[in-house]
């Protein structure tokens, strides 16, 4: 072993650094902090109860989101330490396995009175409040990019995307919002 | 320009969200006759009318589906999760849309 | 203002003057005008030349079916050819230019084609220009293109934005005429989600051209009142300037909204056009009916117009069609125009009714001649007179305008888009929508319902029925009494189609846009092309931008008469989307230029950019290709340096884009054992193994390493190109083939920034940031474990694997930390000579080491071909590819096998794709023995080196061959050799 051991303060670089919030009365677009995203892999035919997952989240509403049969995301704004993550992954066993995607998925919040109109430019999912109520989540194409969409409020959605596509999706959402940003 | 495919898990979605593999065939046993394997790997019916195909909801729930599609009209009569065929869970014909 | 603009009336704003130009001439119109109405108001009857004969043409319609008044609008990137003047709203500064004329509209050389017309009949192009073939390119086509053709596209980029949008509703109402408005109101009041689309700028449809009163209000005021109520309903979306262009599978309707095609300079933040995909539970087609022209001689002379269009210009735009107007009708509708003309002080010169038994409820002053036809019209650039034929007697009447009322064809296009065939009705003299429509119903004139009151009632009634199917509680909207509607009862005297007008002398046009006249259809029948599909191709009837909206039914009627059968037996050609032309801009939406496709960025992208990387697109990824330094003059110089530096010192390469798949579950080991051809059950925790995936046909599918991180948790790496495909494949295996196995999959490609650190100094450098002991004993070749970095500040995954053949590791850290870690490694490695290297150097290093990629795994290679024969298990009971890998053709000893190849003279070179010939063999296909799959200049070897798939290659090391590039006719004497050019004993891997 070498004696030359580097210890240094590390700063993570958010994928959407430089994407400043876009705000008008009609629409608001902002990159969320790269906190934690845990992909929960259950089994499709024996779904886990939500009560099993909720205590593993930070307790915020909609922190646990469905992601297809037997799968969920647990998300939050605060980054978890390595030990905290390990505890969550261990707590999921044996019915489920967890995969840390905190850096692999990037979350964008889109909100405002025109948010459904804006997102309709990208997704074929009917986002009317009556059809897609608060707490509903699904994966869909937004334009050319697959993204996980969760309704977190009457006029608010979170859009989660693979990190590599985050900048492109941001650019798309910004373009889709452009007409609503003219106040 | 557009057509919607019913996913049993996600509802009706545009075809662009899916990947189509082709005929939904049962994989022969490893020790099956060579002829059975030739059929499975190479030979396909090309019927006019209803046809069962494996579709993957790639940009959605990432489940493999058995989609019953009419090759003449593109009408989709039913879709179901492919794992249900083999895992013995109750089949539900038709789909939410 | 002009002789044609009436002193009062119309839905135009006479205080708002708009300036525009036509062929450079400044003209003015009013707000509310269409380009067509403004041109007519200015007395511009001649607006274009016809496609083939270059005949002068005027405005024929007031709507979407216009075949003649096609203009080029705008300039530079906003140039839009083939714009229908009837659909274009007038705006201040509009620039319109006529088409199909050369050198000018008034004097056109191509009109000589008219004199040549006996030779330009149907099938002319096929017959005349067949031979000699070379003349096509050099002579005929350039001439035809110059003289004929429609508008010309601009050659500069369109500066405007386009977008696509989805919408969802319970009821989609297509058409905001009386039936559509009644339906939308009924559904809106019932609380259903309603979308109402109409292609015009103002809702109302024919009501805007009507003089009738509804519930005491003039028709346009009734429209305004109804629209006000609809606009106030939150559950109703109104899309004007929006044409529904297609009905697609899954109850999706396509529609194009012209958001900013009526302004001179569009606002940049909004699109000019929006392509809607509307998912409607139910839809109501209320598209009305198209009036049919009558096929008499000279029916295309400017001044001849559809009767309904004349009503529109008169009532909606306050424009008189002329001063001496005649009407030629085969049904009662012509009399509505007569009444409207008289109300404006223009008594028609004559009404020619083809029915001998006509008994219209007309009390006007015009002379009516029944049982008569207009056999010919006279005039050049403007109509001057008509010939009326009755009982064999002709009479010439001087007129400057002639209206044609040939009956109505329901606009059923959308109802036929999903394969349904239109049905001919003798009673209605029209093709009706297919009878077995699901999810779509019709109301109003499209369902042959006549009269405003009946259309309103039917719209409300049909909507109610559709809503009830969706469990809405609906009450049909009711409206006040309709007064003054000319058609008081449905078809008082049945419309009788008049296909063949007797006594015609001049050219009687059927298809105005394609210059198809009656004689052409007769010729088609005569020459055996009477079938409706053949006649279309033979004559071009029904082609081009209007797709026969005015001409098809007349053509079918004429073909029927010529063949002595019913129109029902002739049938129609197929109705296909789009109903009207759709711009490429709308179809592309935002996906062009920078936004053509998304970019996938590595977490180390900015790090590489700061170090001056040149990037290359690999699928959607941007990979660093090489890192040029000051003074280096070619990419090769940079790549050679990077390669040598890895072999001598150390290099760092971004491999984040390799596919990474987490495989969890209690049966994960068994699962891997079945998807790989080699054994995986006994892979220990903390170790990586190279794995080979086959296809079921026995060929190799992909390769990569899989590491066991814990008892039930593996991570698989795939090639960048196959990452998505392998994930789909594994999901197929897990969900479809073996759902009984407990295995769960997740892509973690984006979670990790992954760096290859390769070279003799790799361990020294890595050890400066990794806490765990990396000595060869503690972390041997193929070790794969989680490690802590920077004194437990960070955790990552470390794999001791090598693509270059050097001592090498791949370090994965959470993506956000990628740049920091790469920088730390570069800093720590500086004293040891570390340099970044890109995919070019990576490629050279792997070719030097004889490692295969998809150049070799190209779908034709078996494991044995590439020297992996031992990786195909003979003991496992099952794995993908097992059943077919032993087929005789796949174990033939003559198969092409992986081999290295070198030029005999190291100063010579060869290219990938070159073929291998035995020494002395002629360069023929028969003598082809294989081909070079990969090649590169190897700074280590000092010459070009290659990998090749060559017949029995594995046993031919040392043999001299000829490397033949048939495309460039290059021959390079070469020698086959071991494909491993570097460290064949793999000693470096284990240091």
Give a structural overview.
The complex is a heterotrimer of chains A (183), B (97) and C (991). Helices cover 17% and strands 30% of the residues of chain A. Chain A has helices at residues 50-53, 82-92, 115-119, 166-177; strands at 22-23, 28-31, 36-41, 64-66, 71-76, 97-100, 105-111, 137-142, 145-153, 156-162. Chain A has a six-stranded antiparallel sheet, covered by helices on one side. In chain A, strands 4-5-3-6 form a four-stranded antiparallel sheet, covered by helices on one side. In chain B, the strands form two sheets. Chain B has a four-stranded antiparallel sheet. In chain B, strands 1-2 form a two-stranded antiparallel sheet. Chain B is of the alpha+beta class and 97 residues long. In chain B, 14% of the residues lie in helices and 34% in strands. Chain C is an alpha+beta fold and 991 residues long. Chain C contains 21 helices and 50 strands. The longest helix of chain C has 18 residues, at 452-469. Chains A and C meet through β6 and α4 of A and β8, β39 and α20 of C.
Q: Quick summary of this structure?
A:
The complex is a heterotrimer of chains A (183), B (97) and C (991). With 183 residues, chain A is an alpha+beta fold. Chain A has helices spanning 50-53, 82-92, 115-119, 166-177; strands spanning 22-23, 28-31, 36-41, 64-66, 71-76, 97-100, 105-111, 137-142, 145-153, 156-162.
Give the overall average pLDDT of chain C.
94
Rg of chain C over CA atoms, rounded to whole Å, is 38 Å
State the order of secondary-structure elements of chain A, H for helix, E for strand: EEEHEEHEEHEEEH
Work out the number of β strands of chain C: 50
Strand-residue proportion of chain C = 25-35%
Structural class by secondary-structure content of chain C = alpha+beta
Unreliable sequence segments of chain C:
none
Instruction: Choose one word for the global shape of chain C.
Output: elongated
